[in-house]
Amino acid sequence: MTFTAPIQLPGLALDTQWYKRAVFYEVMVRSFYDSNADGSGDFAGLISKLDYLQWLGIDALWIPPFYNSPLRDGGYDVADFSSVLPEFGTLDEFKELVTKAHERNMRIVIDYPLNHTSDQHEWFQQSRQDPEGPYGDFYVWSDTDEKYPNIRIIFVDTEDSNWAFDPVRRQYYFHRFFSHQPDLNFENPAVREATLNVVRHWMDLGVDGIRLDAIPYLFESEEGNGEGEPKTHEFLKEIRAMVDRDYPGRVLIAEANQWPSEVVEFFGTEDEPECHMAFDFPVMPRIFYALRSQNASELVRVLSETHEVPSAAAWGVFLRNHDELTLEMVSEEYRQAMYGWYAYDPRMRSNVGIRRRLAPLLDNSRAELELAHALLFSLEGSPFLYYGDEIGMGDNIWLPDRDASRTPMQWTPDRNAGFSSADPGKLYLPVVQSLAYNYTSINVEAQLAQSRSLLNWVRNVIHVRKGHPTFGLGTLRVLETNHESVLAFVREYPGSSTQFGDSAETVLCVFSFAHSPVSARIDLTGFEGATAFDLFGGAEFPAVGADGTLSLTLGTQGFYWLHLGDAPRA
Ligand code: GLC
Ligand code: CA
How many angstroms separate the alpha carbon of residue 402 from the centre of ligand 1? Predict the structure, then answer.
């Protein structure tokens, strides 16, 4: 497969707010491409697929943990934060990945689970053996398992307490996640210093950003619930100050699975910023809710909420990732409805969520896949794709836990889906062979050969998005409509006088979640007489009426992206 270079955005390399217009792609090293036939993906494999990602229009990769690890939590159980897992390659190969990505104007964001380590980490081994030694106070030890009663359990499927007894030290240690992942003790200044050193280590190697895994959980307190405690925010401000001072242009991304008013706190304030970006956990499940309920009102509600955030802040919008589709941020009633629609087999559930991939969730409906992606690429914030979703890959719910959607990338209809030439039994996980999503039909090669494939469609949307800076830089304002199935908003960007010379633009985005065609009237007060042009084909639509309304007819689960104003540039 050969890929020709796509259009480059001029001057991206100098843009300190690059992350606002970037399209991100989450790719696990283990899952993408195996270069040496040992059954596991590796850095050399990922490097060899950069041309594909560049062709697709990806600006930045988010790479989940690749450090030394016993891999009992997909690598989020780190045994050494400064080295790489030998089966993925060497540190030199990691550096080569950074260089090769940068050559393509693509950025590398790594993932840092700073809240905890694996119990195999040297720090924990020393801590349990020598309470008086230098690492004695690196973890949260207690003589009882009764401290912090307000702190909820996250992995409810596997854990029944946040405390585990260590037979060596004969004390309990605190863990927010698996019991083999002891939480670090951030009250200890040496732990905070060690954390800053890890950040420096990887930034010195040239990474462009760090996803701060499980960031709300750093500090715990007797009164609080251990989520976003004031001291956690204080420490984040310290990390950010160091990054701004020593590594300007690099970004911090918060993984905070919380309610909107709590997530925004991880951006900090204009004067004391914390993270540049935060994943939009509240919006994601509401997209899935709207698709089945045919009702957009919950989406309208969360998108209409306004929160003060620093001017450099940006949301990370996503449909799926390497974890379960979490339903923590919806009400019990909505959660039950979503389990009914999307996880009718109990095997599809995991913790408080659903462990399935995008295409199976949407029943492989092309209309729904297009609608969901059109939202992903036009909401306020930067889109994050999950590897394989661009070809509509399936999952394997017979695999344990979240491995269901971490199977090898499907490149070709050949052995192991072209992911590896190892003996099929040797793969880290089997390739998907289900009826509907069998790798012999769902793969990159086959979709490249079809001009109307999902892959080509997704690539086209990405490129249309990139041609309109308002998607990355503009504001979002929800509009009133007279139809409960319809979501409409305008993205407005006044243009900029920076060296990028982006021109002002207003784009009207309209989505119908109805399962049959509808007609809707949209309130566009202030845009009386403006003409609408389709961003994809350029076709002229009726102008906004003198009464400030626009009536549109939408096909089943249809959407429009319309430029409002004069005819767009060719
Ligand atoms: C984050 C990761 C998840 C991991 C957990 C514990 O939520 O996304 O995969 O299991 O942290 O590290
Ligand atoms: Ca390999």
Answer: 10
